[in-house]
Amino acid sequence: MNDTTSEDGRKSASPLGVVVVEPFAVVRAGLVRTIDASPGLEALASVASADEAMVVVDRLRRGRSVILVAMGLAGEQDAYWLIRALRERFPGHVILGMGANADPNAISRALFTGADGFVDKNVEVEEFVAAIQASGGDEVVIVGPAAASVGTIAEGIERRRSPTFRLTRREREVLVVASEGLTAREIADRLGVRERTVTTHLARIYGKLGVGNRLAALRLAARSGLVSISQDE
Length: 233
Known about the structure:
Arc Repressor Mutant, subunit A, 2 domains, 11 helices
C-alpha cells in the first residue's frame, strides 16, 4: 500500500480501497457515497455483476483491497461463484459478503467458499463502515443480526472441516503440486501464475488447516486422501 505525505511532512497510509459488487443501482450508489465519505476508505469501483467484478479487480493496480460482494447476486455466476473465483484468482484481497437478514447457513457457506467475513446491510452506517475497516486489518468480521447466530454458523463450519472441503479448487491444486517438492517459483510456472500468488495461496492453506508449514499441511492433506507424500518426508 502506498504512502502519502501530509502537510507537516509525516507519512500516512493510503485509504483502504473498496470495490462494491451490488446488483441494485440505488443501493450501489448509496454504498459508494458512504464509503467515500468515510475516513480511511476509498471506493475504487462499483459494479452490478460477477463478470464485471472479475474484470475490475483484475485491473486494480494497488495493494490489498476489500471486495464487498452482495449475496443477492443471482444466476449461474452468483455470489458464491464470485467469492470462490475471487479467492482463487486474487488471494491477496479481502472478500466481505453483505446482505440483509441472511440465513446463518448461507453465511457459513460464504465463509467457506472464501469470504473473510459478512456484514448485514441493516446495521447502522457507522457499524457498517467499521466492519469494512476491521476486515481490511485481517479480522474475520460477522456484523449484524447474524452475530447472534454464531452457534449455527459454527455448526456449518464444523460440517466443512475436512481439508478437501475447506480449500478452494486452486488451493487444492497448489497443495497437490507442492507435494512434488517443488519450490514456490516452480509451482507458479507449473500453474501459470505469479510466484507471489502461490506464496499467498500457501499462507491461506496453512491458516485454514491450522498448521505452520508446508510439510504439516501435506501430512494433514495426505490423511484425508487429498495428496500423497512419501514416508521419508
